[in-house]
Amino acid sequence: MHEDTLLTTDELAALRKVPASRLNKERLFGGGVPFIKDGHLVRYRYGDYREWLAAKQRVTSTSQLVAA
Length: 68
Fold this sequence. Notes:
Blueprint (H helix, E strand, L loop, with lengths): L5 E2 L1 H8 L3 H10 L6 E3 L2 E5 H10 L13
Antiparallel strand pairs: 1-3, 2-3
């Protein structure tokens, strides 16, 4: 998939294997994949998703997680 490919909320949710409602909440409260707003349409760049995923903290144990 090309980095500039635009994904709908449902397409990104399927890619992440999460409900679309989770992406809706992330847009509201922050912390999710950056998105583009075009009028009433919401789109996600595939490249932004890959960058967001790469920036996520990778851990091997829950004891590595630090409360923010």
